Amino acid sequence: MKLYVVSGLGADFKVLEKLKFPENMEVVFLDWLIPENHESFGHYIKKMADRIDDSEPFSLLGYSFGGVIVQEIDKIKPAEKVVILGSIKSDSEKSRFIKAGEISGIPKFLPVSFFNEKSTVAYSFLRKVIDPKNPKLMEYFTVRDPYYLKWSIEKMAGWKSQENPKVIQILADRDIVFPPKYSKPDYVIKNGTHLFPVTKAKEVSKILSEIFM
């Protein structure tokens, strides 16, 4: 069976490369697409879903914002299983920080230039939130198109969805981005930050083998 995988916001698949996926799964990574100017979330999701062959059974896995993407894809092309790493199952699980962004509308009003590589404010904040002690953090954060970053943060803040009981959620106990206290995860990775697919790859790989056995 094919397993279609979407990485985190701004991240390529290096952040997931240490994971060992079950041998019975054919892993297909879906690269991020750069959204068109003022592109709707629904239109973007359809373009992502268009790259999935649903003529045969498949499963989905998403990390962080990629977890939101795969849940939306599942609404168009239903998967056998949907697994999310470091992500949320519904808008009711948003952290106070994300809810603040939604209510205030701040992400919408930030200029695109705020997200370019010369913006020390944006990238310093990114380091502090995701994993401040990991010196290799920026090696995983490679999709740096400013409009894509602004668009994605807006869509994450404004995401609305009810929980799908099909979704299997894996969170880390020290994740600041998506704290497990706002969710009821199926699995919790101990002593893990938001970057747990890298730092706790063995634990995550073991869980994936159980899910897809």
From TrEMBL:
<keyword id="KW-0378">Hydrolase</keyword>
<protein>
    <submittedName>
        <fullName>Alpha/beta hydrolase</fullName>
    </submittedName>
</protein>
<dbReference type="InterPro" id="IPR029058">
    <property type="entry name" value="AB_hydrolase_fold"/>
</dbReference>
<dbReference type="GO" id="GO:0016787">
    <property type="term" value="F:hydrolase activity"/>
</dbReference>
